[in-house]
Design brief:
The chain is of the alpha/beta class and 343 residues long. The chain has one domain (3-334): Rossmann fold, CATH 3.40.50.720. It is built from eleven helices and 13 strands. It has helices at residues 12-23, 40-49, 63-72, 88-93, 95-115, 150-167, 203-211, 239-253, 273-284, 308-314, 322-342; strands spanning 3-7, 27-31, 55-56, 78-81, 120-126, 174-180, 182-184, 218-221, 233-234, 236-238, 260-265, 271-272, 290-293. The strands form four sheets. Strands 3-2-1-4-5-6-11 form a seven-stranded parallel β-sheet, sandwiched between helices. It has a two-stranded parallel ribbon with strand order 7-10. The radius of gyration is 19 Å and the shape is globular. The N and C termini lie far apart (39 Å).
């Protein structure tokens, strides 16, 4: 059984990936400092996996601590690096915090992998590396435009670090760069899902919290974009589909040495903010209270993926649609509300 270090494994995408790793016979080991995640996630993981998942509360910018965890488990066979701050709007407000954590943690992971001779790395990148693309759908060969936010720029820098690392004479690390589009949804069981600390920065948890009455109203940031209804367009991918791509990536790395390859992960279909709201109202039967606000700094107008390369080379493609994702997200939010009512 291969041991896989999962940084940020208690987070939204990380926790779902831990489940898929365990299902496919891997042994996941979590590193998370819980700065943007909840310990309750570990209880949900235990129910889904059938046993406790090893978890170490350390900061991923600390090389020595990462090495200690690897030694404690007798070495690891690969790393999936999720640990990063991820909100576009927050990054505009707190750029230095994003540069320190997102870039610093990757450098620390690479250093620890070199010291401990760990060869395989799956890196959590983002479609924000493309900025506002000139043509759609975006392919992996689409050029990087100027990043619209500090968050997007950290992902561009991190990808460059791994490209440079792959070209170094003494390199021993093979990496796959997974450029996510917009992950949403929750595990169909309702045991784990997206649980932001404080006010949500992403659309779907704000939608579900508004539907349960935890938020008075949802603000749509701009309705004057050049789209079919004036609101921004994104490619929304179910988090379970996204998690499965990480397992496929680890299997793909076993076939290559010293590679550094990017892959888009998306549905290939763009949906506007109003499309998402209308779909949510349909699957939930709830009417949302929302208002139109000003555009938000850092947002791109429209972006969606071509994921043909991932299907061809990783044998991966999306199996779940927007309605599935919104139904699972709503189920998760209702379970959270029920738990709070009991407490």
């Amino acid at each position: 059984m291969q041991k896989i270090l999962v940084t940020g494994g208690a987070g939204f995408i990380g926790s779902h990936t831990v489940v898929e790793l365990a299902r496919e016979g891997f042994h996941p080991i979590i590193i998370d400092n819980f700065s943007n995640s909840h310990r309750d996630v570990l209880l949900g993981l235990k129910k889904l996996v059938g046993s406790d998942v090893p978890c170490h509360n350390i900061d991923c910018t600390d090389v020595a601590s990462i090495c200690e965890v690897i030694d404690q488990h007798g070495g690891v066979d690969g790393v999936i690096h999720f640990a990063a701050f991820k909100a576009v709007g927050e990054s505009v407000r707190q750029p230095a915090r994003y540069y320190h954590n997102n870039i610093g943690s990757l450098v620390a992971i690479v250093e620890a992998m070199q010291q401990k001779e760990v060869k395989n790395l799956v890196f959590s990148s983002s479609c924000t590396v493309y900025g506002q693309p000139k043509s759609l759908p975006v392919t992996e060969d689409s050029p990087f435009a100027r990043a619209n936010s500090p968050y997007g720029y950290t992902k561009q820098v991190c990808e460059r670090i791994l490209v440079d690392q792959a070209q170094a004479e003494d390199n021993t690390i093979s990496s796959i760069l997974l450029r996510y589009f917009n992950p949403i949804g929750a595990h169909p069981s309702g045991e784990i899902g997206e649980l932001p600390i404080g006010q949500p920065e992403n659309l779907v948890p704000y939608v579900t919290q508004t539907a349960t009455g935890e938020r008075d109203s949802l603000t749509i940031f701009g309705d004057d974009y050049d789209t079919h209804d004036g609101t921004c367009i994104r490619d929304y991918i179910h988090v379970v589909d996204l998690a499965k791509a990480h397992v496929k990536s680890l299997l793909g790395l076993e076939k290559h040495d010293n590679c550094c390859e990017p892959f888009n992960l998306g549905t290939g279909e763009g949906k506007s903010v109003l499309d998402v709201i209308n779909a949510f109202e349909h699957v939930s039967g709830e009417k949302l209270n929302y208002t139109i606000g000003d555009r938000r700094t850092g947002d791109v107008e429209k972006i969606y993926a071509s994921a043909d390369r991932a299907e061809k080379e990783l044998n991966w493609k999306c199996e779940l649609d927007l309605n599935n994702a919104l139904r699972d997200a709503w189920n998760w939010q209702q379970r959270l509300k029920s738990k709070k009512a009991v407490m």
